[in-house]
Amino acid sequence: MPSPAPFTPISFEQWKAFELKNPSLLPDEYVIAKDGSKCVGLSTVWRLDQEPRGLVQGNTGVRREYRGRGIAVALKLKVIDFAKRNGYEKVKTWNASNNAPMLAVNTKLGFKRGVGWITLEKYLA
Question: 85-109 burial string, b = 16+ CB within 10 Å, else e?
């Protein structure tokens, strides 16, 4: 996923504490795409504490070699289906402006653009 900063690996314990132990995570809706026993994609779902009828579709990612096969669309559709079946009124997601393929997926699925985020940097001498 594009990021304004270089990727910084974290330990499994850090990831687990942030991701799996977060009280807003809906673990039963943590969607994983598999090819046999190999995990090839995922999408996370979080409750919006400030909007009880809303969800956040967090990271949706597909392994590079599996991209372009509709997997990201399928993952996002699973989350949208869950939201509809459970009475949610809104699903939010975020998209890096330089991630054109995911922006196309989100647009195709009817997500509307909201307020943008701007990242600023200042180099210090």
Answer: eeebeebebebeeeeeebeebbeeb
